[in-house]
């Protein structure tokens, strides 16, 4: 999902939020949380995003450390090794980031149009 | 200038603009253009930002290629090797980026407040 925004041929904003705790939240971490919510596992989310298992875990750990409470919770494993889901904190983080993104894009639209006119034609 | 935004202890947005030409404009390139405007040279701007000469030139080249016309112009060198200044395109790019940043920050403020409350205390 993060990749779509930076694909050539599209114009748009990419937003990174820096929090006082030092935590940085950008399109990659938010896409990972959304994929965890959808797949019910960190490894499944990593696969869906073409991200290594270690990379996915590292990002989740970074989010857990940077937030006042963890962003994901694991349910005890049964035959399938349990599942992972977003906590209320994880849910709120995704929602707030997407709201920031939407509000920013709307506010920036007239300036973006002007900036887009200054760009060289594609493949120039 | 770009560094201030990502320093620990501050919260805020960092914005990257992706243009259809493939050009990406973020705080680093914009700070470089501003420093060129202030110092009158690419090397001086690089020094002011703690950036190597090569890195500064590469970023300027990237901007020149990605815009419909160059962002800087060199005046023929005299004893001091001439000077470099921003073109109208360079000026407009800086202005529009800063407008996008300001508009986005204002639009995102209420959501940022909520997100900031979720962050872990500093140094946790």
Write a structural description:
The structure is a homodimer of 124-residue chains. Chain A has 124 residues and is of the alpha+beta class. Chain A has a domain at 25-74 and 83-118: Orthogonal Bundle (Arc Repressor Mutant, subunit A). Helices cover 56% and strands 12% of the residues of chain A. The first copy, chain A, is built from 5 helices and 4 strands, in the order αββαααββα. Chain A has helices at residues 2-6, 27-39, 42-48, 53-66, 88-118; strands at residues 12-18, 24-25, 72-74, 84-86. In chain A, the strands form 2 sheets. In chain A, strands 1-2 form a two-stranded antiparallel ribbon. Chain A has a two-stranded antiparallel sheet with strand order 3-4. In chain A, strand 1 (12-18) and strand 2 form a beta hairpin. In chain A, helix 2 (27-39) packs across helix 3 and helix 2 crosses helix 5. The radius of gyration of chain A is 17 Å and the shape is elongated. The model of chain A is unreliable at 1-7 (pLDDT under 50).
Task: Put the structure in a nutshell.
By secondary structure, chain A is α+β, with helices and mostly antiparallel strands.
What is the 3D shape of chain A? elongated
Percentage of residues in helical conformation of chain A = 55-70%
Helix count of chain A, per DSSP? 5
Largest interface: A-B, 47 and 47 residues
Text of the CATH class of one domain in chain A: Mainly Alpha
Radius of gyration of chain A: 17 Å
**Strand order within the widest beta sheet of chain A:** 1-2
For the terminal residues of chain A, how far apart are their CA atoms?
A: 26 Å
CATH architectural designation of one domain in chain A: Orthogonal Bundle
- Percent in strands of chain A: 5-15%
Average pLDDT score of chain A:
87
> What's the number of extended β-strand segments of chain A?
4
| Largest sheet features of chain A | 2 strands, antiparallel
Structural class of chain A: alpha+beta
Flag low-confidence runs of chain A.
1-7
In CATH terms, the superfamily of one domain in chain A is Winged helix-like DNA-binding domain superfamily/Winged helix DNA-binding domain
Give the SSE string of chain A.
HEEHHHEEH
């Amino acid at each position: 999902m993060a990749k779509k925004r930076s694909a050539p041929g599209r114009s748009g904003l990419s937003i990174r939020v820096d929090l006082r705790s030092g935590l940085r939240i950008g399109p990659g971490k938010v896409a990972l949380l959304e994929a965890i919510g959808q797949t019910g596992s960190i490894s499944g989310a990593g696969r869906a995003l073409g991200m290594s298992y270690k990379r996915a875990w590292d990002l989740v750990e970074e989010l857990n450390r940077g937030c006042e409470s963890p962003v994901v919770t694991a349910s005890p494993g049964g035959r399938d090794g349990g599942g992972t889901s977003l906590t209320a904190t994880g849910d709120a983080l995704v929602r707030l980031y997407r709201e920031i993104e939407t509000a920013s894009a709307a506010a920036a639209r007239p300036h973006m149009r002007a900036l887009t006119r200054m760009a060289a034609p594609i493949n120039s």
